[in-house]
Amino acid sequence: MCTSIIYQAGDSYFGRNLDLEVSLGQQVVITPRNMVLNFRKLPTLDHHYAMIGMSIVRDNYPLYFDGINEKGVGMAGLNFDGPAHYFPIQEGKDNIGSFELIPYVLAQAASVAEAKELLANANIADINFSAKMQAAPLHWIIADKTGASVTVESTTEGLNVYDNPVGVLTNNPKFPDQLINLSNYQSVSPAEPQNTLAPGVKLPVYSRGFGSHFLPGGMDSESRFVKATFVKMHAPIGDNEVENITNYFHILQSVEQQKGLDEVAPNTYEYTIYSDGSNLTKGIFYYRTYDNGQINAVDMHKEDLESTALITYPVNDQQKIEYQN
């Protein structure tokens, strides 16, 4: 299970929490402009936009969980087990494997509008990366530096690209149902609530934060969708990059999953393995992990983006404590 957001604070910041029960050996991976991208059923791209994100690499191919490109477009794939449905190869369609979709879009789209055009004739094909790596059931959020975002879902109904007015994505149910559920929480507020239950009666208030009393706090995807939307919509805007990326990570921390609380199998627990976020304007990729709360950064523009080979950085997963005495 996962949560992804786009947060606007002067620049736009895009990224996600990755919630799983096991780490997959992810790295920070930069795909330069001249790294050849091969697709199973589409023409090869010899030259394209550079991208950076969290990925695993298999057979010299970047299998991105999420990332951004140099034009300020971000994309993340989130678990969508149940509703997700991929189709056989269809003649006349742009047949794309689910594992190819992030590099396919980020390699070519300079905006959400261009991403929508790319996907207008797309078919998410039922293709596995290999016999040992089956296609994961996913849906996707795409966002750009203007703050625009869409949700992409391939279900038995076909491929749907929904405008995403809140800039948040979690998991099930389908995206339109997530938006409908938000209406149940319209009265949630950071402010103290008005007494509309018994007007004129002075009711005792025993705590601060009463305006958020009915905000859901579960680790389920529907609760996280509501909580992340609320926190994001009321998050402050900082005066500089450090303040803004700090605020961004606090938004994701509001729906972080701690170890020992979400049992997915006997004695096996899902947790937030990493959180990441990128400045879509500056091309800086930030991340922190469950075991290392320090924010780490990789600036894609400090690398040779005309290269033909993947550039990788190991995830810094060791906690650093600053002793003051």
From TrEMBL:
Gene3D superfamilies: Penicillin V Acylase, Chain A. Keywords: Hydrolase, Lipid metabolism. It holds the Pfam family CBAH. One of its GO terms (molecular function) is choloylglycine hydrolase activity. InterPro entries: CBAH (IPR047711), CBAH/NAAA_C (IPR029132), Ntn_hydrolases_N (IPR029055), Peptidase_C59 (IPR052193). Residues 2-313 form the Choloylglycine hydrolase/NAAA C-terminal domain. One of its GO terms (biological process) is lipid metabolic process. It is an enzyme of class 3 (hydrolase). PANTHER family: CHOLOYLGLYCINE HYDROLASE, HYDROLASE. Belongs to the peptidase C59 family. This is choloylglycine hydrolase. It comes from Limosilactobacillus rudii.
